[in-house]
Amino acid sequence: MGNDDEIIMKPRIIGLYLPQFHPIPENDEWWGKGFTEWNNVVKARPLFRGHYQPHLPADLGFYDLRLPEVREQQAELAREAGLEGFCYYHYWFGNGKQLLQRPFEEVLASGKPDLPFCLCWANHDWTNKTWQKGNSLRKDSMIMQMHYDREDYVRHFNYVLKAFSDARYITVDGKPLFAVWEPRAIPDTRQFIDLWQKLAIENGLKGIHFVGYTQNSSGRSTKDGHVSLWDANQAAERYQEVVDLGFDAVMSTGLGRAQTIVNGKWKKALFFAANHTFLPMSFRADYEKVMRHYYVDEDSWENVYPTLMPQWDRTPRAGIKTDPLVNSTPEKFQKTVEEAFRLIQKKQPEHQILFLKAWNEWGEGNYVEPDQKFGHGYIQAIRQTIDRHAAL
Known about the structure:
Blueprint: E1 12-17, H1 25-31, H2 37-43, H3 68-81, E2 85-94, E3 97-99, H4 102-110, E4 117-121, E5 126-127, E6 142-144, H5 150-164, E7 171-172, E8 175-180, H6 189-202, E9 209-215, H7 235-244, E10 249-253, H8 255-263, H9 265-273, E11 285-286, H10 287-291, E12 304-308, H11 315-318, E13 325-326, H12 330-344, E14 353-356, E15 360-361, E16 366-367, H13 377-391
Parallel strand pairs: 1-2, 1-14, 2-4, 4-8, 8-9, 9-10, 10-12, 11-13, 12-14
Antiparallel strand pairs: 2-3, 5-6, 7-8, 15-16
Helix pairs in contact: 3-13, 5-6, 8-9, 12-13
């Protein structure tokens, strides 16, 4: 037993949740009638010796998120894993236009499942580069473009207010957690955040806990003109940039930096310079080796919420134009969870947050839902780590 001054280990694991698994008119138009993420998943094939593809679902099958029974089953699996709840990707493009909102709207309206949730504004353009361009029914690259202005910020806030007021909504320090996928993309970020904070107070909330997603390094030039190529020690700078925009906390990932360290920075540079046109067998990397470099010391900052990455393989979406991780297993993922727990153990319990990236990104090979190869293995890896720390 620890002394009274010790902080209790109480990890808050929140699963990023993709609502792409149901047909919508826009995807019918862009990709073909009845298109969902499952279309990408089932067409995947091995691209090199030992390549694990396709990844096929087990318990839930090729589910349709319009079915409340499916959403209840997912919630039950999340409880089995020990997750606090889901963070639904929220596709709001401006001018009142959004996509894939039906599953979350039904969760909100029905009160079911009784599982905590929050939102992550996926504020990025949709192009037909998202998946293989040859599959698109449109020739132009821009499918849906983001639009930002003050009037729309108000409209957007009024839309999410009902969610913020729901008893299930996940809070931090008494404030609803709202994540933003591309914090630097908002042209007037401070105005947006200040306006929403003002509107939150006016509507009886304590405010909003804004979380901005970011890599812990980048391929851009640094202030002195040096090109970092993802392997420089930039985490403190990158995280502070997000905080300086007005965000309360950072959702961090180290995938780009870690892949570069394992593959070599010049190979990574060549990969990007060639517009991702080389076979992934040239750029694939071993999951366990990459995860040794995934986290940085700055992930232990009180206002940084690291991500848990169980797997990563975008070949179902991108074909040869990607750089997958290989040889992931539940046992290796459990080591990742252990390392992440170590990073957050000294934070206040309210801030011991980890974002699971992701719960169900099947098209990116980035999920923990049961599949036909590992069953409940990735779910059990999380639960076993939680249970072990609870017993200490």
